[in-house]
Design brief:
heterodimer; A: mainly alpha; globular; B: alpha/beta; Rossmann fold; ten-stranded mixed β-sheet; 19 helices; Leu-bd (chain B)
């Protein structure tokens, strides 16, 4: 019983930790992973989603409805942002870095001026249940399930729809895609808007577990970038899933045995080692492995 | 009555002992308010105060003359706090507190209080300490709002209800007070730049700054190099013995010992400490570890969490595996505040104690109940303190800042500290920093919204009115016990006397041999 509950607790911690990494990264997967824009305003987009959900919840909207609302609001904001500012910086990675950093400062400080230093939080939906010595939050289990669903949805969107095909084509070779009739400008706007919307969605999902404050987004920036960079660009979705799982698998047992400080150290160390031995990220390694297997006729 | 007469009475030249001053006279409103208390023995202060008295006699004329002189002009109070970033939730409150205090000074108001001599509050027999009010655990939570019954010895016990009085002048020494308050942005490098700027370019007369101990330690070397008068208003881990620094917040001996004592007696001896991983968290945890055995407690596990961590799933599981009687949480910043809703959602229901939560980050207002259920904290200030003087202060605050969410402990400290600075400068008769430092070392008592606060000359720390606050399942705050005056005694114990020997360091518990002795298991 004791060992069983410990194992269950470790699995639960692993799941929540991986879900946290994935949710923190999901918007960035699209914007950094596919469009190759170093989006330092990622955290503020998540913050915007969290604020949207919180304000709507306080206004009486059921929490479950505020999540898609946050997606729409932040996606619309992302589209405007892309049209007005970000599109002038395609192909200029460092320019995009500086301009998104500026956007993040304006958003953070603007929120502070407009809404004050914090906003009362939303109650975490659902209760908890216990098994043995440990108890578990139902809401985090829901978040794990939502993460899995999001992964499936993204995979379907990019591999099974016309938009996905056009988006992948435009990212790979814009000129060729254009000459084949793809309206690349629109694809870029849609893609950036989707990435922003997903950041808003995950911000709304994490909102009940977090402090709602103007600079809350900053806590997600480091985990998000680590997840996406460790995942690599060969297949961003598979890469992010792989790196979120792997990083959680390093952080959880070390954290459980030695405390949060060593958990964080182990996480950063693991990211360092992975980037060193797999400079193209986990997804490139996965891709090669799949390629070999399909060549040898196993797949 | 003319100001002249009044001042003549205030500035005693006969060197009467403070303790001999009759109660009635000591209590007279403006006397103590102007910062010239009943007894000032040092010649320099007499001269200084005399000069002020002369200045006050003809305020308009003097002010006209002073603005004509290049060295005069506005009195500049430098104020750095984090108005953005991870710590903005605290910094904005402190900024507003400074604005309120400066506005009141410019409008001719001050808080009651004045120098009472080195003996402290008891010397005046004005606000005498009484035994802690004993409640019967959780069953008998009650508000103690007036300070208890009268003792049999005839000591005064009632707090003044109205502590904001006329100072007798607009501004400070006939000059307007200006607040120069840049944003530290929760970034220690920026703090250092701003400190240099305020000292070298703005030439501030007094620097009031600092939330985290890391920020304070980042700027203290710069302060010491320039011999800048510096007031640190936060509660912290204690131990700073610095001739240029005055620490007006509560420290470990005032907060940790009473709360650990209460928690061990009420909930049991097994303590799990989860603390922010920087000097404040580490040293406060060291205090807890050293003193827990004295009251029969035992630290079963300690965990230090980096400030960037915001996902506490693993920490929560570790606490459940350790099965403590209660959890000592020393978490700082908005990232780490996430611990409370996450722990609550995960079904973690241990009683908690802290020295920072509720009173600083108003977690009981920010998070949905019951996240902070059974949280205990020995605080020197919370907005909910039900005394009349505090309610008047809260009212004044919200008239100026109607949209503010909360008035925290360190905001109140900043508020009374700036009033205290004005009093000391009036006593010194000048804003010359060395003179004001000496004036602050004369044994000042000030009637803050929390209660009487005494600035202890030899260690530059304050005695405080400490209350044990707790939140229930609906996040209603009540005060279980109170200690009207707890001294900051640790630096005295290890022999610090800044009046006689200048020092510029922070002592840590390891330097006190008694700590290792306390820490040993029986």
């Amino acid at each position: 019983m004791e060992t069983q509950s410990l194992v269950l607790s470790l699995l639960y911690q692993l799941g929540t930790s991986a879900a946290f990494f994935f949710l923190a990264a999901v918007g960035l997967i699209i914007i950094l992973g596919m469009m190759n824009i170093i989006n330092l305003a990622h955290g503020e987009l998540m913050m915007m989603g969290a604020y949207t959900a919180t304000i709507a919840t306080h206004a009486g909207v059921p929490f479950a409805l505020t999540v898609p609302l946050a997606f729409l609001v932040v996606a619309a904001f992302g589209a405007v942002l892309e049209r007005l500012i970000v599109r002038r910086f395609y192909g200029r990675q460092l320019g995009a870095l500086v301009v998104t950093w500026g956007i993040s400062l304006v958003m953070g400080q603007g929120t502070l001026l407009f809404f004050g230093p914090f906003m009362p939080s939303i109650k975490i939906p659902g209760g908890s249940f216990s098994y043995g010595d440990f108890s578990f939050s139902e809401y985090w289990l829901v978040l794990i399930a939502i993460s899995v669903a999001l992964i499936a949805l993204l995979w379907w969107l990019y591999n099974r729809t016309t938009y996905g095909l056009q988006a992948r084509a435009a990212m790979q070779d814009a000129t060729m895609a254009k000459s084949l009739g793809v309206r690349t400008g629109r694809v870029y706007t849609l893609t950036f808007s989707l990435g922003a919307g997903l950041a808003g969605l995950s911000g709304a999902l994490i909102a009940p577990t977090a402090t709602i404050a103007p600079f809350m987004g900053q806590q997600f920036v480091a985990p998000a970038f680590i997840t996406v960079v460790v995942g690599g660009a060969a297949n961003v979705i598979a890469g992010a899933v792989g790196s979120a799982t792997l990083l959680a698998a390093v952080k959880t047992p070390v954290g459980m045995a030695f405390g949060a400080f060593y958990g964080t150290v182990a996480l950063l160390f693991a990211a360092l080692v992975i980037i060193r031995i797999m400079p193209d990220g986990i997804s490139a390694r996965l891709q090669r492995w799949f390629d070999r297997r399909s060549r040898s006729g196993l797949l | 009555m003319s100001r002249n007469e009044e001042n003549d009475k205030t500035v005693r030249t006969d060197g009467v002992d403070a303790s001999a001053v009759p109660q009635a006279e000591a209590d007279r409103g403006t006397d103590r308010g102007t910062g010239r208390g009943p007894a000032i023995r040092r010649r320099s202060f007499m001269q200084g105060a005399g000069a002020t008295a002369a200045g006050l006699a003809m305020p308009t004329v003097i002010r006209g003359l002073k603005t004509a002189r290049a060295a005069e002009g506005k009195v500049k109070i430098g104020h750095i706090e984090d108005l953005s970033g991870n710590l903005a939730v605290y910094g904005v409150q402190k900024f507003h507190a400074a604005q309120l205090a400066v506005k009141e000074i410019n409008e001719g108001k001050t808080l009651k209080g004045g120098p009472v001599g080195s003996g402290g509050i008891g010397v005046m027999a004005n606000y005498a300490a009484k035994a802690p009010v004993m409640g019967d655990g959780d069953k008998d939570l009650k508000f103690v709002n007036k300070g208890g019954d009268m003792t049999g010895t005839g000591m005064a016990f009632v707090q003044d209800e109205d502590v904001l009085i006329d100072s007798g002048e607009s501004g400070l020494l006939g000059r307007e007070v200006e607040l120069i308050a840049p944003d530290g942005q929760s970034n220690n490098n920026i703090w250092q730049q701003l400190t240099r700027r305020l000292i070298q370019e703005d030439k501030v007369d007094c620097l009031v700054a600092g939330f985290t101990s890391a920020e304070r330690e980042a700027i203290r070397p710069i302060v010491d190099k320039a011999k800048q008068l510096y007031i640190y208003t936060n509660q912290y881990e204690g131990g700073v013995a610095d001739s240029n620094t005055f620490c007006t917040g509560a420290i470990c001996e005032q907060q940790v010992i009473p709360v650990v004592d209460y928690m061990v007696k009420t909930f049991g001896p097994r303590i799990y400490t989860i603390a922010a991983d920087y000097n404040f968290g580490q040293l406060t945890a060291a205090w807890t570890k050293a003193f827990a055995p004295l009251v029969g407690g035992e630290i079963i596990q300690e965990e230090f969490v980096p400030l960037s961590v915001s996902d506490f799933t693993t920490s929560i599981a570790r606490i459940q595996a350790a099965k403590p009687d209660w959890v000592f949480t020393l978490l700082v910043g908005s990232n780490q505040s996430n611990y409370y809703p996450q722990a609550s959602a995960a079904g973690l229901e241990y009683p908690m104690a802290s020295t920072v939560n509720m009173a600083q980050g108003y977690e009981h207002r920010r998070f949905k109940p019951p996240s902070l259920n059974r949280m205990y904290n020995c605080i020197n200030y919370m907005e909910e303190i039900p005394t009349a003087r505090n309610q008047a202060f809260v009212k004044r605050w919200y008239e100026m800042f109607p949209d503010d969410p909360y008035i925290g402990q360190m905001a109140q400290n900043t508020y009374f500290s700036i009033h205290l600075y004005a009093k000391a400068a009036r006593l010194a008769g000048t804003t010359d920093q060395e003179s004001v430092k000496k004036a602050l070392e004369s044994g000042f008592s000030i009637e803050a919204p929390e209660g009487a606060v005494f600035l202890e000359p030899s260690t530059h720390h304050c005695s405080h009115y400490i209350r044990l606050a707790t939140a229930d399942a609906e996040h209603n705050v009540s005060f279980v016990r109170e200690w009207p005056s707890i001294q900051p005694w640790w630096l005295q114990r290890i022999g610090v006397n800044l009046v006689k020997h200048k020092e510029y360091k922070q002592y840590i518990p390891d330097e006190d041999p008694f700590f290792s002795m306390f820490g040993k298991k029986k």
